[in-house]
Amino acid sequence: MSDDQDKESKTESPTEKKLRDAAEKGNLPVSREIPLFASALAFYLYLVFFMPTSTAHISETLKDLFDQPEQWQLLNRPDAFSLFTHLGLAIAYMLLPAMLMFIIFGISSSVFQNMPSFVLERVRPQASRISPMKGFKRIFSVPGFVEFGKSIFKIMIVSIIMFFALRGEYYKLIDAMFSDPQTIFVRLVTIVKKMMIVILICTALLAAVDLFWTRHHWFSQLRMTKQEVKDEHKQTQGDPIVKSRQRSIARDRARRRMINNVPRATLVIANPTHYAVALRYVRDENDAPVVVAKGQDLIALKIREIAEKNGIPVFEDPPLARSMFAQVSVDSVIPPAFYKAVAELVHRVFAQRSAKKRV
């Protein structure tokens, strides 16, 4: 009952991290019917493109053996070795292309489903793999019944195909056994081709259905609960409450650092109470004034208070203060659009300093 409730609670699609972790552990959707279809296709292509030549070659070998047996006397060990070598080379000539095609198509079927990767988790010893209870559950689970149904379907289809294919060829095969050896292989190849065409169609349909089923089952097995999604988000992105607290602390530190820079300012441009922008201009440091601090409301009042304590001129220019507050960030040089307005204020500050020095 708990397993059913757990499955019902898994309503969320797996995240990219969940899918990536499953792939790293070797948990990937693999259809067993795709390699079967690839093997059947490889065998059919072998029958069409390679079997005629191979059949003719081995037929000539057997014909030569049966028509002229006196050439292959078995009087001693070298004679037997020569005969078996000759037959072995003929059989190898016939089977080698088939073996190569099975290997190539088998590897291609695996790569088609998932890119190959070495996963240590798959070879790590686990007690569940030898547990009778776990094995019983795997056999009598939904995937187990699906695999059993596919096996029964394949056996039935192959049996029916063999029955209908061989029923009409039975007497022809018996007659061919007493005729030219070449006709035996030709007749066999014709029958096998008929069988393979039907088998290819059936395995292709079964492979397509199985591919969809395995991927759907794999995806459903990785579905997550809402709590699992939240926990994973906290692990990857961090707890939202902690991150909010960290951002708040970072803003407080930046604000204190900015307030500490106000005594270094050359002048402050303010909207009477809402905005304040502190500028520093030293000819040897920068070509244009730099914003060392800016603030709104309470921070603006704090900037004005510190500026007045340190004897820094405060100029009230609401449009200029609002524009600079919105467009210029702290520790940045003011843009050329403000050069003229700020230059007049800087000139007034330097003029006041010069007048004080003369006095």
Detailed description of the structure:
By secondary structure, the protein is mostly helical. It has two domains: 28-221, no CATH class; 261-358, name from scop, CATH 3.40.1690.10. Helices cover 69% and strands 6% of the residues. It has 13 helices and four strands. The chain has a four-stranded mixed sheet with strand order 3-2-1-4, with helices on both faces. β1 (267-271) and β2 form a beta hairpin. The protein is elongated, with a radius of gyration of 43 Å. The termini are far apart. The model is unreliable at 1-5 (pLDDT under 50).
- Radius of gyration over alpha carbons? 43 Å
Calculate the mean pLDDT score and round it. Answer: 77
Strand order within the widest beta sheet: 3-2-1-4
Summed up, the helix count is 13
Instruction: Compute the number of structural domains.
Output: 2
Number of strands: 4
Span of the ends, CA to CA: 94 Å
Residues in helix, %: 55-70%
In what range is the share of β-strand residues? 5-15%
- Low-confidence stretches are 1-5
C-alpha geometry: elongated
**Strand and helix order:** HHHHHHHHHHEEEHEHH
Largest sheet: 4 strands, mixed
Key features?
359 residues, mainly alpha, name from scop, 2 domains, four-stranded mixed sheet, 4 strands, disordered N terminus
Strands, helices and their partners?
Elements (H helix, E strand, L loop, with lengths): L1 H8 L6 H9 L8 H35 L9 H37 L18 H8 L2 H26 L2 H7 L4 H41 L4 H12 L2 H21 L6 E5 L3 E6 L9 E7 L1 H12 L4 E3 L1 H10 L11 H20 L1
Parallel strand pairs: 1-4
Antiparallel strand pairs: 1-2, 2-3
Helix pairs in contact: 3-4, 3-8, 6-8
